Amino acid sequence: MSNLQVIKPGWQSTIQDGGRRGYFRDGLSEGGAMDEHAYHWANTLLENDLDSACIEILMGQFEAVFDADTTIAITGADLDARINGREVKHWSTHPVKAGDRIAFKQPRNGLRAYLAVAGGWQTPVRFGSRSVVMRERLGGLDGGPLRAEDRLSYLPNLNAPRRCVAPNYIPDYQAELTLKVVPGYQYRDFSNASRLRFTTSEYRVSNRIDRMGYKLEGPAVSTEQSGVISEGIALGAIQIPQDGNPIVLMRDRQTIGGYPKIGCVTSLDCSRLSQRGPGAVVSFEFSDIATVQADRQIFDRFFRASSRSPSGQPLN
Q1: pLDDT tens track for 130-142
Q2: Is the pLDDT of residue 310 over 50?
Q3: Which neighbouring-strand residues pair with 216?
């Protein structure tokens, strides 16, 4: 087994996979990659299992050295990735040699990049997942973000294919974003005027964002209820606190909560939202469960059946 030695851990770099499933009833958050689209592409490029662990790098400033030859993939945000000081292509695989140094600098488009290695990062499995949930001190090496001098194990592999993602599958994380929302059962507690305000207004991503949730700022949404009995919270649930500014709950959300919820952002749109930083503009539109399920099925089938391509050719 070989290792990646962390030199600079960056703002927040964590091990993430597909998430911790089946333990929500026990009070454990699912965790997992914030941007499923970029995460799945990173593993698909390397022909890894789709649930293989990646390093999720928030806003760059990450630096590390490989001690054995292997192949890596970089997807997600453009954090000005470099190998041995040379800028490298995003959404692509790259061979690396023992002693090579990889660095992620400043964000140029998006917030979170994904660094995958052939075979996946071999960190311990805890409750069926390698994902880090920092609040619970669970996953990764010690339940927290990576630190300087940490060593991540991997299997040497230079036989992984050379591939890149076709341009039409690479998103623009600076584009304005409309989030699809499935109405929740508390939807009826919001007046017609509040629902209209919610779907015809623009909201901006605030400075209060993390892996637990995204606080948005804009026209206040009011409800006839000031609170509800604490209940389970789904990914993408939109809580409306007393100030009327929506909070979209993300991967590391708490398992129960008591704010009224107007609906739930789809899982795929949560991924898109996770790449938007403070000041980004978002809006909401209501959708129906059949449309949302169809979108999800298409996404899942696409990655299960992604076509293979010759070395160096775009993968689509």
Answers
A1: 999 999 999 999 9
A2: no
A3: 205
Look at residue 314 and tell me if it is in a domain: no
| The total number of structural domains that make up the chain | 2
Same-domain status, 139 and 163: yes
Residue 45 pLDDT > 70, yes or no? yes
Neighbours of 19 (CB within 10 A): 19
Residue ranges making up the domain that contains 74 = 2-171
**What is each CA distance from 100 to 12, 63, 285, in whole angstroms?**
22, 11, 46
Angle, CA 226 vertex, CA 29 and CA 286 arms, to 5°: 65
Bridge-based pairing state of the strands 109-117 and 247-249: unpaired
Gap between the Cα atoms of 219 and 241, Å rounded: 13
How many Cα atoms are found within 13 Å in the side-chain-facing hemisphere of 299? Answer: 19
Whether 283 is covered by a domain: the verdict is: yes
Q: Looking at residue 260, which CATH number applies to its domain?
A: 2.40.100.10
From residue 64, alpha-carbon distances to 92, 140, 143 in Å are: 19, 16, 20
* 228, part of any domain: yes
For 289, phi then psi, to 5°, come to: -65, -35
Residue where one domain finishes, among candidates 171, 190, 224: 171
Between residues 70 and 158, the one the model is more confident about:
70
**Residue tagged 């333990």 (tokens):** 23
pLDDT, one tens digit per residue, over 225-282 is 766 777 889 999 999 999 999 999 999 999 888 889 999 999 999 999 999 999 999 9
